[in-house]
Amino acid sequence: MGFRRLRTTLLAAAIAAAPMIAAPAQAQQRPMVWGDSLPATLDPHAIFDVPSQFILLNAYDGLYRYQANPPQLVPWLAASHTTSADGLTWEFTLRPGIKFQDGSDLTADDVVYSFRRLLAMRRAPAAAFTPVLKPENVTAAGPLTVRFVLSSPYAPFLSAMPLVAIVNQRAIAPHVQGDDWGTAWLSANGAGSGAYRIVPETYQARVALDMERFPGHFMGWSHNQRPIESVRSRPVMETSTRVLALLRGEIDATDSYLPTDQVERVDRNPRTRVARDESMRVFIIRMNNRKPPFDNRDARLCFAHAFNYQGFNEIVLRGLVVRNAGPNPNNLWGNPPDLQPYNFDLAVARRHCDAARAAGAPLDREIEIHIQSELEQTVQAAQMFQADLRRLGVNLRIVPNTWPNITAATAQAQTTPDMWIHWVSTYFVDPENWIGQMYDSQFHGTWKASSWYTNAQVDALLRQARGSLDQAERDRLYQQATRQVVADSPDIWVYNTLNLRGLSRRVQGYQFSPVGSGGEMRLMSLEN
Known about the structure:
Helices cover 30% and strands 19% of the residues. It is of the alpha+beta class. The two termini are 31 Å apart.
């Protein structure tokens, strides 16, 4: 039996062997089998990436949520909010009668606990709030009223609100060990109010997650007459195996990075289709600016001109993406309208390489580029880059790796790879999500800022922009910062993506939003 066939057979066996989740008798439908990646932990305050958004959207709720495409920020657990004239005091009024999945009431105290937990843990989702919010400045002003007092104005505050899951402090409290805030327990359990409940008994980290519908979700189910009762998330690491499992009906959805060379194959199958949606996800090749040779601007410009953007975007990806000149997606405000991207030109690249070598940059050493093995595009981009750099006398070694391993390594400059490839997706809709957290040096130690770029002028512009309450001024400041970042060339920006997800035709009601990549289960139904 061939390797690919064996992998698919094992996947089918694993799905069949997983215990069925109890559902009402009238709903005897096959579960939804979601073939996308799972996060390294289920604790929504401990991680900040695309897989974690699946947990955030389905098992938890926040005060506000993004819906639709283009993404619209709508009240969720909160019914409304007010802001003081100076932008420092924010008050959110909760909807009455909201229940956690264990039946207990969700109150302002739970919101206060959730934000204080997030800020105390200081893990990835906290980065949007720690510069301006202290734990003691989140208080309950009433049973359904939460007050936030910021230390300085922070324009993206409301835009970032959907990042924070509201957790059930009573469910977590018995499992707290020392000062861990219960994260060891919550990494494999649920404590939310979301539309789907985590089934801890069958959970296997990054391998298998089962969820069952929560009938008492505060939004109700009148919008969906045939909701999905059971969801099984079963990641499939190898691209070809993942696509084959979809074609055979063993999974109902792939991840949202479907390789373009598989699009026609999925569309041709009568049981499957490809959902194509304009996204706000930037494909980026990082360079560790703290490690030679990338501490030299000429070396970085050499690499920026040595990547064949048109060949990758138009030939490898068949024109299903749009060239991106800088760190922000093209369809977001804050970009200079005349920003020019770096072009593929090996003669220009060679001149910059020569200048870097003359300045002592060690371009003759082997340089490692880490790719995400399960995502074919990262492999394709690295292989193409490797071939063109070889023509410049640069030896690029491709290192297979995984998202959790790479992002853990980016906590320190010395352990961050020379180069690595990934996407920056939409976690909240503001330039702060992209350029703000990627190139302000205060975010060093997070995967978003893993180029370890430092420019005092850019720091000042980004900090002024996030503190201004004047939208026109913010737009001007972000444009100015973007021009400077692109001139310094700390990274290589390739494209703004079209989201491509393979789906079974039995999946109905799939609704894409750039925040969450279309993974909100409460909106979908299944045809058996």
